[in-house]
Every structure is written in structure tokens, then in C-alpha cells.
């Protein structure tokens, strides 16, 4: 591969890019890879999760603008490019039974129609590798699940000249990955490392809840070493100030333990048009040797 490598990370909301695969992106940026974050929605219906900012009337009334500024700051910290697909946040419905999703929201847009915006971006940016969410969305937020759906359609369609005419010249990405950073093995390893050092773990309840999930373990195929970029990841995450409590569980594991116990970010290879051997330690394995 003689041309510059390109990576596209498809995410549902601003802040998702900083909590899922951010250190990986920072690593590749440092190596000269062109990295673009595609953000499906503006996060308009996101709650203010940082207790220090709750009750701020300006933020509540201008949440879309605030989250856009937060995204811009995180983008600069990570060194990536970023594009909005322009869909409206669906919110996270709660209750039993669940209320209907709001009219016009991302999760209610026809999948083939919504995928057109992503196909256009893929054809413009021409990524060799795309990362997105698995069919469960990573967790069952309707926007995360919709992000998975449009990513799968767009990955297959972007290289087909008969699909989505008028959205640019066809481009075929070579690999597609699911983010699997919150896998059970990593959580157990960090939990046990904390307890063995006499420290409190934020993962005890997580692991108990995990037992009730009726899902098979995911196949983690790719572990990208990126521990030296964990501080950049955290700085980018903190830029999303409305969404992240700096005193919250995200930051309870000392950095030296994170780097020692689990120095990678993890992915599941879902599609590949190039030959590669599993397990991998590089999202561009097989791509670097192609063409």
C-alpha cells in the first residue's frame, strides 16, 4: 500500500468516539494515518450526565450547540477529522412499556435511506478500514443499533456503482470492525487487578449484571496496542463535559494499572476483503500489503 492509509470511525453521538477506540485513533494519527470520525447525530436528546453541570439553564437550552463545541475540542485533542451525518438524536427510551421514539429521529429513518449519507461520506473520504458497532449496538441504544445497520449497508453499497447514484465515485472499503472495548475479559482483568492491590473496583456490579445477559461472548479478533495514548483518550473524553463526570467510574482505575493489565483496545473483525491472520494487532493488517 503506497497511498496514505485512511480510517473511518462511525459513531452514534458526540462523545462515543472518545469512549470507544479513541486511543486507537490517536495512535494511527501519530503514524500518519488519515482518520475521520462520522457522527450520525448531534446528541440533541442526550441528558446532562455531569452532576456539576446539571441545572445549568444555558446548557439545557443550547445542548446541541454545546455538544457540537465539545465534539470540536475532542476532535482537536485526538487529531482526527470529523463529519456530521445530520440525523436527530433518538434519545434513550425508558419505562415499561417503552414509550415510542420521537418522530423524525435517527432510529426511525429508513435504513437504506439513512445509509445514503454514510455512502456519500465513504465515497468522499475513501477509507480502507471502517469501525462501527455490532448488531447489539454495543449496548441497546436505538441510535447505536441504527448506526450498526447503516454501517453494514454502506460498507456493502459504497463500491457498487449501481447503488446510491449521485453520491460520488464508488469506493470499496477493505475491512470493517466492531468496537469491542467493553468486553468481559478486559473487565474481569481490571477488576481482579484492582482487588489484588487492595483497591476498590467499579466493575463489581457490571460483572454481576453480565451474568444475567443472555448473549454469547463476542469473538475478539484484534487487539491494538495503544497504552501510550490512553491519556489522550481520557483528555478527549473529558472534553465532552456535559456527558462525563471527571470524578466518575470512567476514571477510577489508575492509569498505570490500565497500561499494565490491558494495554490494548479491542475489535471484532466483521468483514474483510483482504487476507489476514487472526488474531491481529493492527486494523490495517492485510491492507498494508494489498495493492
List the helices and strands and how they pair.
Layout: E1 6-11, H1 16-19, H2 22-30, E2 34-41, H3 57-61, H4 63-78, E3 81-87, H5 111-125, E4 129-132, H6 142-157, E5 175-179, H7 184-196, H8 204-210, E6 222-225, H9 230-239, H10 255-261, E7 264-272
Summed up:
With 291 residues, the chain is an alpha/beta fold. Helices cover 35% and strands 15% of the residues. Helix 5 packs across helix 6 (142-157) and helix 7 packs antiparallel against helix 8 (204-210).
Compute the CA-based radius of gyration. 19 Å
How many separate helices? 10
Q: What's the end-to-end separation, in Å?
A: 6 Å
Number of strands: 7
Note down, in words, how this protein is organized:
This protein is of the alpha/beta class and 291 residues long. Helices cover 35% and strands 15% of the residues. The protein has ten helices and seven strands. The chain has helices at 16-19, 22-30, 57-61, 63-78, 111-125, 142-157, 184-196, 204-210, 230-239, 255-261; strands at residues 6-11, 34-41, 81-87, 129-132, 175-179, 222-225, 264-272. The chain has a seven-stranded mixed β-sheet, with helices on both faces. Helix 7 runs antiparallel to helix 8 (204-210). It is globular.
